[in-house]
Every structure is written in C-alpha cells, then in structure tokens.
Amino acid sequence: MKVKLEKIFLAITIIIISIVMFYWISQKEGFHEDEIFSYGSSNYSLDNVFQRYGEKDEINQIIFDKILVGNVVDNIKFYLTNPNQFMEEYNNLVKQEKPIWKTKQEAQEYLTIGKADILNYFSVYYNQSRDVHPPLFYFAVHIVSSIFFGMFSKYIIFLINLIFLILSFIMLRKILKLLDKQYLSIPLVILYGLSIGAISTVIFLRMYQMLVFFILLSLYLHIKIIKNKFDIDKKTRNILIATTILGFLTQYYYCIFAFFEFLVLIIMLLKSKKYDILRKYIKYHIISAIIGIAIFPASIYHIFFSYRGIGAGEKSGLENIGIYLKELCYAFSINEILVLGFILILICITIIFVIRKKEKLSSTKKNILAILIIPTILSFFVICLISPQMKDDTIIRYISIIIPLVSIIIILILDKITNIFIKNKKNISFIVILILVGILSIYGLITSEPRYLYKGYNQILNVAKENKDLHYIYICDNNFTYLSALPEFLVYDKTMIINNNLDNLEQLKDDGELNRQESIIINIKKWLDYDKILKDVMEYTEFNNYEILYESDEQESIIYKLTK
Q1: φ and ψ at 312, to 5 degrees?
Q2: Which residues pair with 558 in a beta bridge?
C-alpha cells in the first residue's frame, strides 16, 4: 500500500513539475543560434546551416552538384586521382560568395520538414558528420518534426526534452531504490526537477536533457553491478552496452563521466580480485566503442581534431572553474558562498557523528559512494577545462549532467544528518527533507529565472510583423550566430544577411532588388560600429532617411527603418 501511495504522489509531483516546465517554455521568447541549428541540421537536406549566399556551402555544392550526379563512382575516382581539383573548385566558389536575398519560404524550408525529406535520415546523419556533435538527438528532432509536418515550434524539441526529463526522474527513483532510499524519491525529484538548472536544460532546445538521462542510466547500472557483488548478468550487460553506445551518440560529454565511472569500477574490480569480471567489463566497453565509432566514424574527427575537440584552443581552463562553480550554485538558486558553507557544515557534522558513533560503512556502500562522487567531481573539473569560452548565462548546458548527480549527493547528505538526529525514523526524515527541499525550490522559483529565455525578442518579432511586406537586411560579423534571427526571416518578405567582416557594403550600390524598394528594415548588432555601418549603407543606396524602430542592449540589436 505504501509503495502504491508513493508512486501516486511521485506521479503527481512529476505532473506538477511538467506544468512548471510548460510555464517556462511559454515564457521563452527567442532562441540561441544553437537551438535554431537543432532544427535546421535535423530537417534541411541541402546544408546544416542557413547559408547567406545560397542554398549550400562550397563543400556541399561540389558534393551534391558535381559528385552525386551522373556516374557517382567515376566522379569519386576523378576527385581522388585529382586531389587539387576539389580545393581549386572550393576556392573558386569562395571567391564568388555574395549575400543574396533569401525568401521566407527558404527560412521555412530550413526549419521544417518538406515532403521530400520525411524520414530522410541520411541528410541528418550527413549534416551531423559535418558538425561537431553525434546524430541521435537530431534523429529524434527529425522524427518529431515529421509528425508536426511543415511546422516550426519551440514545443517540438521541448517535448523531446520533457520526455527525457520524465525518464530521468524514473532513473533517479531507481537509483534511490538500489540505495534503499526509495522513500526520498519525491524530495529528490523536486530538488532536481524544480531547480533552475533542470528547467534551463529542458527549455534549452538541445540534446543535454537526453544526455542527462543516459548518464543517470549508466550510473544506475554501475550501482546495480556493485550491489550484485560485481556480477554482470546478461540483461545488465546488454543494457550497459546499449547505454554506452546511445550515450556516446547523444553527446560526447557522455564519454567524460563514463570514462571516470569506468576507471573507478576497474579499480574496485582489481582490489576485489575479480579478474574474470574485469576482462568482461573491459570487453563490453571495447565492443561499445567499436560499435559507436562504426555507426558514426566522424566522431573520431569531432573528438580529436575539430574546433571543439580535445586539442582545440579557446578552452575555459583552470581560471574559469570559479565561473562554472558559480553557475552550478545558480542552478540550485543559492549564493555560491552560502552553498559552499552549507556543504562544509554538513560534511563536518556528518564526520563528527560518524566518528562518535564509530560507524563503519560496508565495502558495498563505500563503493557506491565512490562511483557516485568521484566521477561527478572529476567530470566537473574536466568539463571546466575542455568547454569553450562562453558567457556566464550560456554555460549551464555544459554542467547539466552534474546537476542531477549533485542533487543525489545533497539528498543523501540531508538524509544522513536527519537520521543522526531523528534516529532512523524514515517518515519524519522524509517530511523534514521534503520541507527543506520545498523551501529551497520555492525560493529558487521566486528569486531566479531559468537561462535561455531570451526575453525581449517578441518586440523584435513585433517589428517584423508590422513591416512584414518590406525587405530586411541583417548585419552581423560571422556566419553562424545569425541563425538566432531565423524567426524574423520567417516574417519578412525577403532577407539579406551581411557579414560585416567579409562582405563589402559597396555591393549594395548595384543591387537592383534593393534599389526598387521605397523603404527597408535594417538590423545591426550593437557590438559593431553601427553608426558607421548605417552611414555606409545610406551612402551606397538611395535611402537618405532613417528612424530607429527598436534598440536593445539585452537583444544586442538596433533596428532602423530606411526610406527614400
């Protein structure tokens, strides 16, 4: 009866958390460029980026227009026997690059599934081979986008993330069940599920909540192996191999936690002299690695040689560990000084009472704590070292896998402290911990907002809707971040994307399409010299009057209307 009641209340808790998630996704106004890329790379068959000068970049132009036409075998042989030919054609195409007017239909095609692309998983796979992430998440986006045919909505990926959040809750409960702490499932689900970190992970339209699930599943399997005295039955073996492969194909950060988990368990097996199991355990991971790489060979390049690979520059480094710690504290809505002090107090109290009671942990409990705590701490520091330099409000994605693990640790510490004072009265301990977690969660929801809301973007969309029949010029300084403006491109009649670093604004002088317009809208990113850019645009065109329609430091944009 108690188990049934616990399941009912847990289900109610999950429903409430899901409602909270729906509330926050409804508050999300804009997008990070990576979020828009999630849609385009999953759904567009011609390229993984919305190119400003055509349908495809130079590499895809050669592959699709010259290699994958006619006799493909002969074409491949030709380029293999003439290695300089590819680069010569590539360089010629680069020289011909010129921003063109893109229609809102083209933006729609990039973000949504067309009839010809339903279940076109080859394009998804190929697009990701040219990116720096594995394809599993993008396959899921493609499937759900096919269901919502022709529709672009933030709820498409949100639903995927919500499903994996609920699956993560199930794994948290299973982990506590293995620890004989099942009665703490509801406080743990609340602590994690209502944390600003979890909410941010779910409303950030990327693969990180899927990654969290596979991390928790892997942790569950390793705790199960330890509890079974390192015996790995056939079912556990198969799930472990499948989890390792799927985690690897979701996001390469899975390898960080899995690697430390692997090392810790190997040390345990060596200490226990379980050599037969050790060989099998290593063999299972070798099999997983071979299958994972065989499924997605591009992963070798991604991990070791890409601009996000382990050898790439511009990493955060040791000096930014403090930033990541601060963001981890923000994930639980607690000041970093307070949380560190609180943890130290809890640890000291625990040590004192354990010593006084002369409590000795069993080897199994020690091993379980080791497989939980050591990979968590080491993964955090490695993530700090290898993650790219980012603004404070965007790095929470990289520590998303740490948040549920820290939640488990916090719950176990609170349980230890309450049991010391309450003397193993589970019901009272549950109530005390639930109250503490409830206060923390309510405080967090009142005082903090999730990341990735991009509030204020609706004002930019309103400007677009009011001027939807006009042409739109979007000026930035790179070939990727403008993806965040795709919702605007869906509204305006036509859009030209100009990279201020690469494109000569003087070319506007000869643009007949532009010169036929009586007025246009122009968006210049505020980190650029927007006064000079505006002056140059007006000098090279027939527009001689302007008014500012919108200006925002938060959105880093200034939007003008130019008239003749």
Answers
A1: -75, 160
A2: 524, 551
Residue range 108-162, pLDDT digits in tens:
999 999 888 888 999 999 999 999 999 999 999 999 999 999 999 999 999 999 9
Q: Give helix 426-447 / helix 402-422 axis angle, nearest 10°.
A: 140
How many residues are present in the chain?
Answer: 564
- Rounded to the nearest 10°, the torsion over CA 363, 367, 368, 372 is 150
Residue identified by tokens 């404070």 is 392
| Residue 264: other Cβ atoms inside 10 A | 20
Comparing CA positions, the residue from 398, 408, 341 lying closest to residue 192 is 408
Which residues neighbour 461 within 8 Å (Cβ) at sequence distance 6 or greater? 29, 487, 488, 491
Q: Which of 98, 142, 190, 125 is nearest to 410 (CA)?
A: 190
Judged against a pLDDT cut of 90, whether residue 392 lies above it is answered with no
Q: CA angle, corner 115, sides to 113 and 120, nearest 5?
A: 65
* Residue 426's pLDDT band (cuts 50, 70, 90): confident
Q: C-alpha distances in angstroms, 440 versus 188, 191, 339?
A: 12, 8, 12
- Measure the CA–CA gap between 483 and 33, rounded to whole angstroms: 5
Tokens of 171: 């794994």
Q: Which two tokens stand for residue 37?
A: 């890329």
* Cα gap 66→79, rounded to integer Å: 10
> Quick one: pLDDT at residue 313?
47
Residue 170 has phi, psi (to 5 degrees) of -60, -40
Q: In the 8-state DSSP scheme, what is residue 65?
A: I
CA dihedral 178→184→187→188, nearest 10 degrees, is: -10
Enter the DSSP assignment of 315.
B
Kind and range of the H or E run holding 494: strand 494-499
What single-letter DSSP state applies at residue 228?
A: T
Bridge partner list, 522: 473, 560
Neighbours of 360 (CB within 10 A): 9
Distance of CA 333 to the CA centre of its chain: 20
Find residue 551's DSSP bridge partners: 558
Q: What is the DSSP letter of 115?
A: G
Interval 295-304: pLDDT, tens: 999 999 999 8
**Cα 159 to chain centroid, rounded:** 14
**Tokens coding 413:** 């510490």
Please classify residue 105 by burial: count the beta carbons closer than 10 Å to its beta carbon, then call 0-12 exposed, 13-18 middle and 19+ buried. exposed
Per the confidence metrics, is the pTM higher than 0.90? yes
Of the candidates 511, 430, 136, the one whose C-alpha atom is nearest the C-alpha of residue 295 is 136
Q: Is 370 helix (H, G, I), strand (E, B) or coil?
A: helix
Instruction: Compute the distance between CA of residue 109 and CA of residue 56 in angstroms, rounded to an integer.
Output: 13
Residue 188 scores a pLDDT above 70:
yes
Would you say 207 and 128 are in contact if contact means Cβ atoms under 8 Å apart? no
